[in-house]
Every structure is written in structure tokens, then in C-alpha cells.
Amino acid sequence: MIFPIYIYGHPILRKVAKDIDPANYPNLKELIDNMFETMYHADGVGLAAPQVGIEDRIFVVDLDPLSDENPEFKGFKKVFINARITERWGELELVEEGCLSIPGIHEKVPREGNIRIAYLDENLQPHEDEFSGFMARAIQHEYDHLDGILFVDKIAPIRKRLIKGKLTNMANGRTNCHYRVKTAK
Hints:
alpha+beta, Peptide Deformylase
């Protein structure tokens, strides 16, 4: 099932997601499948549960569609449940990001180049992995959604002022994209 994606201005995008008890989450596999399906339908590479109106600490990332130009992304498809970034390091790198919840806006976002993250996978197996480069960036972007943080919160103040009108339009329910959305209005 393809979920509508919640757009900038919707209050759920600012809530801190809650840990889940995966053993008592009977529809977990279905939720994960639906999140991937929704993400693919919207041409995304990552999607967090709050973006589809669910206040749980789950996000998915699939960088495999980018593997033609970046062979290191081949087979990189992961589910992160109850994730916690335990360490970030490296110089801040400014790289352009976009977001399915903020359609049509792309801005340079500063992020550390390396992370260590603890999480459960889709089979409820615990992991603690390190990621770097774009993999770390994509994971940090989705992880931020679990804490109610959007990429526009991290951009330079001057850039935020320049896109304020577009963000206001989104918050007021005026947006145009090719996938189903749910706005605050």
C-alpha cells in the first residue's frame, strides 16, 4: 500500500518518534514493505515513519537505484528500527539534499562524514555499524526525521530566508508533486 507523504508544516514532522517493541508489533513486516513501496513510488532513497504519519522510530534507506553511478551503493537496502546514532565524526561537509516531505526544495546541508549507529534490522537482529560519505548522509537525514528535525533546520539562515515563501506555501497546503501527500491544511 502506498501511503501519502506528510508535507512540511504538518505537526507530526516535528514530533520525536517513539521506540517500538518489535516483538509486539504484529504488522511490522507490512509496514516496512509499505514504506519501501511508498518511497519507490515517490522516487526517494529514504523514508522515515513520521513522513507517513507514524510516530515510530523506523526508517528505510535504499541506495541501490544510484548504483549505476556509484557502484559502492549496490545492494545497499536497509531497515533501521529504534536506531540511535552513537557517534559522529569528521569534518562538516556541505552537500545538497532534498526531502520527500519538502518537495521541490534542495539546499546544501552541513553534516559530519562518518557515523556509528546502533539499530535493529527488519529481522529484529541488533547491529552497530559505521557508515561514511553519502551512506552516512542519507542515514543522518532519515534519522533526523525521528527527532522532529528537517534538513531546512540545518541550512544557512540566509538560505532559509530565501525559501521562506515556498515553505510557507507548503505549510498552508499549497504544494505540487507527483505523489500523494497529506498537508497540515
